[in-house]
Amino acid sequence: MTPPNFLVIVADDLGFSDCGCFGSEIQTPNIDALSREHNALRFTNFHVAAACSPTRSMLMTGTDHHIAGLGELAEFTRSSAAHQGQPGHEGYLNERVVALPELLQDGGYHTMMAGKWHLGLKPQHYPVRRGFDKSFALLPGCANHYGYEPQYEEQDHADRFFETATRALHVEGSQIAELPDNFYSSDAYASKLIGYLSGRDEAEIKKPFFAYLPFSAPHWPLQAPKEVADRYQGMYQNGPQALKSERIERLKKLGLVDQDVVSHPIVRVGEQESQEWEDLPEETRQSSARAMEVYAGMVDRMDWNIGRVVNHLRKTGEYDNTMILFMSDNGAEGASYEAQPIMGDKVAAHIAKYYDNSLENIGRGDSFVWYGALWAQAATAPSRLFKMHSTEGGCRVPLVVKPPKRTEASGSRITKAYCTVMDIVPTFLEMAGLRHPGTHYRGREIASLRGKSWQPYLQSLHLENEGKKRCKDEEFDIHDETYVTGFEIAGSGALRQGHWKLVFVPAPRGPQKWELFHMKNDPGETKNLCYAEPAKFAELMRLWEEYKAEVGSIGVAGEFPEAVQGQRVSLDDEFADPYSWIKFIGRPKLVPGHLSHIRPVMDPTVLVVTIGRLLIQIQANYNPFITAMAFWTLPSGLLAPAPPSGSSSSSQTNSVPSLSSRHIQLHPIRYAPRCSSILAVSPESLHGSYLSAKLPLHHQRIWCRNRPIFENPGGALSLDCPPLPGEPQFVHGHGASGDWPRCDHRSRLWPRMIGAIA
């Protein structure tokens, strides 16, 4: 029998009821069509981690994210001393696990992906190093969906939050990718995947394929084509509470929740969230509703792109033999929690200065908005809370499964069977006729699977058609009532066994203590039974301690110092207000900087050099999101001669003439290498030589050593400061051939040509 193809589609921060087949008013005809296939299933009890990269690590490995290297979001780990350096908290997919595409590749599959990776930023952690034959990947956790990056003023650069929130840093294979001017994330990822599918050679077409399509939509910043967002104009004018009520009624009508379900009330924190919709200023209501319209547009556009990929498979005749999964990576995003540790007090000011959040511009590439906790809780209802909380609202997400056509069933159905994202790896391996290697892979020790294959369950549906009964409690059709699942992220924790769930929600949205709920009777987590059921509470607490020790969890807030949530009980004031971005309306202002010589600036990670009218802003840091910018023009003319031997460096500081006989326009640079940011151009007047600047890791020492600008014998203008003992050695090469300066592996640079002549 021919092995099936696999297509896994992941939405980013999509709420439980954000698709039409899960009760949404948002138009998702292609996802809905998958759910209506004769053997398709809609899972209402599918669970993931409460944050994106932890879920993605579980999807790739079939084991717990604490084991796979993403015990926390990497953004959190860097801010928490308790998590830094701990096993399982490396911030990338570690060597303790083997990834699904590696196993499928070994088993004869052609593997490809296009979309968000978020499982490692360094070249050794790229998708191509974890089993993907072809890959086009967004490395960080989020980015501007249009690839927009503002050009900063002199001595002004992005707050740390925006270093990770807007840089559309992509790699294709092992190379940094340039983005086209018409880039839009969902369109680009679908197009790239279709290109990989259609570009297979004869040998590759003979292989079954594994295709991974992880969208970055609808993650903030909320951005969508205007014509798509406009389809939802006026739909959200009654506010989040009204939307929540409408969604719950549709969920009941579709049979996705029980008729008597008790929904968890919307949790409101702070004065701004506590205001009733009708009491908000008109401008605030209009802008907030528009943000929700744009969110709907993002989901709509994502669905359209899913349709493009599915239609391609239909045209090639591969659709029937393809197992297709559509899921979200976590619950709806409520408060930008993943940005909390890196937010500074300049975020709102930065938005005001460089983004245009006026009503008519919301959703464009130069806007920066989110929709906040109230809209998020409308999308996760009847569940409690949202992303970053180990409640049902954070961990229970929509899942549509379209098996290969040979898997028979009586028709599309809704299932309440409890399952998790860790089940996907064993399911695919069994369907492909492959085995997990167990505890060793390619000479190293690895973690075993914690998930369970769905294949017996899918086969049982066929048996049911023949009159054979399955488990009497549908919830345990896949995992029996003894199966234990643990959840922990950012100080919020939970443990599930059977119908019982232990939950810890940190302040300010929870009591910061353990609670106990019966999930079959109370899926909204509204009745704490820890005092009514002390024996069950004690039993699950014991299981929690076992789970924590087994996977390497640091624990929930209060169990370790400097908890990410809990001790830091609130976000920065400017982000505690869900409508704060509405207050800052203005258009980006671009001002060129003009300096005549090298000089230090306030930020020790920034060196600004101007040669004539060219401003080179060099930002040396391990953070790959920091961007080097080239502004305005470069004057042609003679370069400064090398300083005479033994001369005072200070006397040579201003030796570069400021000529303006001819100008060569430069494009802004989108990406820069880590540690040393280098700008190189090849103007005709320099006869093919390169203008460059380089820094050692301890770049701030340039000020005390005060090295001059000089022209080296190779014709390259360099700012050169030799490394101190113990620093990485930089090996540079210049020439008319276009070679980019290279370095040895210890400096961990990304050699890359950036900047271009217009």
TrEMBL record:
A Pfam family cross-referenced in the UniProt record is: Sulfatase
Q: Which residues form a coiled coil?
A: none
Q: Domain (Sulfatase N-terminal): give its ranges.
A: 4-433
**GO molecular function list:** arylsulfatase activity; metal ion binding
| CDD domains for the chain | PAS_like
InterPro entries attached to this UniProt entry: Alkaline_phosphatase_core_sf, Sulfatase, Sulfatase_CS, Sulfatase_N
Q: List localization entries.
A: Cytoplasm
What are its GO cellular component terms? cytoplasm
Primary localisation category: cytoplasm
What keywords are assigned to this protein? Calcium, Cytoplasm, Hydrolase, Metal-binding
Q: Which cofactor does it need?
A: Ca(2+)
Q: Answer yes or no on keyword Hydrolase.
A: yes
- SUPFAM superfamilies named among the record's database cross-references: Alkaline phosphatase-like
Q: Tell me the protein family, please.
A: Belongs to the sulfatase family.
The protein, known as: Arylsulfatase
